[in-house]
Amino acid sequence: xxxxxxxxxxxxxxxxxxxxxxxxxxxxxxxxxxxxxxxxxxxxxxxxxxxxxxxxxxxxxxxxxxxxxxxxxxxxxxxxxxxxxxxxxxxxxxxxxxxxxxxxxxxxxxxxxxxxxxxxxxxxxxxxxxxxxxxxxxxxxxxxxxxxxxxxxxxxxxxxxxxxxxxxxxxxxxxxxxxxxxxxxxxxxxxxxxxxxxxxxxxxxxxxxxxxxxxxxxxxxxxxxxxxxxxxxxxxxxxxxxxxxxxxxxxxxxxxxxxxxxxxxxxxxxxxxxxxxxxxxxxxxxxxxxxxxxxxxxxxxxxxxxxxxxxxxxxxxxxxxxxxxxxxxxxxxxxxxxxxxxxxxxxxxxxxxxxxxxxxxxxxxxxxxxxxxxxxxxxxxxxxxxxxxxxxxxxxxxxxxxxxxxxxxxxxxxxxxxxxxxxxxxxxxxxxxxxxxxxxxxxxxxxxx
Length: 449
What we know:
0% strand
């Protein structure tokens, strides 16, 4: 027993230094593991930052190339990309339409039935004529509204070209005719003073607003519809995880705000401001931005789509703001500005404009006198001297210039869209190639094991 006890004591004493050695080794192994983890994390962070900086440089380079893809810098390439984008869109949407065979068949049947009723004589022709006239009226003003807001700021400014002059002509005619009961037809295509003025409907601010309310509302509803394509595109890009060009500033929002953002452009600051309004205020923020003349509201659809704002929240606020609140503000401004007394004073004050004041005064007076004669003449006779037509010619040239600019902007937009499409296809091909390489490596490893 004594010997065993001695041997046991000795064995315990001898095992203590071995345990200490094992513990030291384990501690060293843990330290090395921690160091390896820190080094791996540092390497991954540096790799991530390098990849992010590289991707940002590539995106900036691509954006610069896309901005230079305009018809006055590279006309042949722009026209080529534009035609390819149009063909691509026709193929994509043509396939989608052909898939809806039941709806196409129903539309075709309805068109055939309406065509038969349209050509068969009878009492229903009166109803068809009324429907045709009102359908064309609504389509015309809604279409002009869509053209005004579609294209992210490159739309045709149809308020300055069509709706504003229409409200101004109704205002001038109301004070000249002392009535708003214009014969229909030819109103609204042409305005003629009635033979007997209607004293129950005298010309004042409220009555003139009522006279042009329908076309103004339809135009405003069209501008709200024109904001929908950017909304759906940004929302689809956010859900699919792809890059939408106008969203990049939102990703750098916190960084730009923390660094002072002195180098950022006014447009980027406007985007950040729109994002804050939409995110924090929601429906009433969109309503407030849509209710005032706001050139940055073209970005509202992108902002709401990017942050997945519900459709009816965005469209409802946009429709109320643009078609009701904003249109009443614009109508009041035009009606007050084209009051007969104010217009005559403005023409008299043209003489104080240096150099060209006297030369402009006579054509403007002739133009106004010509318009007054046209209101009382059912044959729309022109003025004898023709000097009033100078203003009309200038306005026609201005309209043609705006339409040409709109067409050129559409061509540039299609070309840049095709450039972005090519980049997205290359990125998809790279990702698919990377996935295939990973599969091949995994298969080779499994075979080797």
